[in-house]
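Encode chain A's predicted structure.
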Amino acid sequence: MFSEKQRPPSLTRRGGFLVLFVSAAWLVFWYPFTDINVIQQQQHEHPLLNKTQHDSEVNESPSAAATCDKNMSVYVYPLPAKFNLGLLRHCHNLNVHTDMCPHVANSGLGQPISSGGWFATNQFTTEMIFHARVENHPCRTWDPALASLFYVPYYGGFHVSNKFRERNLTARDELDVSLVDFIQAQPWWNKHNGKDHFVALGRVVRDFIRKPNDRDYGAGRLLNLPAVKNMSVLIIERHPWQGKNQYGIPYPSYFHPSTSQEMAWWQNKMRKVRRPYLFSFIGAPRRKAAIRNEFIRQCGESTRCKLLNCRTPDGHSKCGEPSEVLKVMTESRFCLQAPGDSFTRRSTFDSVLAGCIPVFFSPHSAYTQYGWYLPGERSSYSVFIDQKSKASERIEEELMKISSKKVKMMREKLLGLIPSLTYAHPNATNSGIGDAVDVALVSLAKQVNKIIN
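Encoded structure for chain A:
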């Protein structure tokens, strides 16, 4: 971090106001909803997430954190509250299907479910978590004159999901347009015409690319605005063909460690866990993704498969319970990752966390999405079965062909990916983890340097 002497005088004078504002916002919007008695009860109920006497010795995580030098520093725009924290005042309405108020607690990590960095994190809170991490990041600068990257902490995903049912398109797009007007009026925009600016979005790309002739399903048009096309867009699912300025970042999973020791402990636990099932599938049927129905059929007919169906007759699915999801995945050698409403799914990152080798059926579920994060050699950590091939009709048979030696090598590679695909706790400054935000900032700095030069 930078000393007061290094901060511009104008920023220093505003420091007191900013501290008061951020503190008030934290208390009003981010304070946890769960009391200590509930947390203690959850710890008792979820032994998988807690250390035991047998887990005392662990190896350090091999992942290294980002190093900050003169070529990489991030300035965080102090946006008016209406663009981020102000949206949380309407947390009950941020998602048409879910009350997001419990999920925006703890800087978007959600409700704590155990000690050691475990939270019931919602898949659409990435922009909050990213914001909180950069606010506390060692590469942050308070002086825009020193910045190589300019972060615009706009909660665009929360905004668009809050406006899904807004039929007045002008009203739906008003905040997006207002953001662009605000940013373009800043002196630092003109330095490179916004090419060193970026946003991080927590919903998939189709929610931001509505065009005049598109069928309206509630999307906004943030990514179609000319100014935003000049910026870099970090997003949980990019457009595989037209996303030239879009870069895929991980969905958040449930683990947000504060230290490299917590990370190494979990990696070691997943290395030793017993996996009695060959494969598993966690998901619900989809009318537009018939392959899911095929997975459910094949898994239900196999004694080597563990099925967690997210659509039950009584409506009480366990798919929203982190411990149940991780239990299925940690007991499985392979986890089927089917496209659903879009190409990607949070389940991919849950399976990596659980050391369960992902099986993809579309290259756009991961390979064309997360180039900053995944090895170029796909077969080193995953299995690909074309959903249009005959092999997709005999998944068990295909997976049985992979030797136990190969499985062990793939899992070891997968475990090594966990740190860079995980969002560390926002307070984990200089933790040595080298998390998803570290990877994004380092990779983006290189990309922006290429674009500008």
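The chain is about 35% helix and 10% strand.
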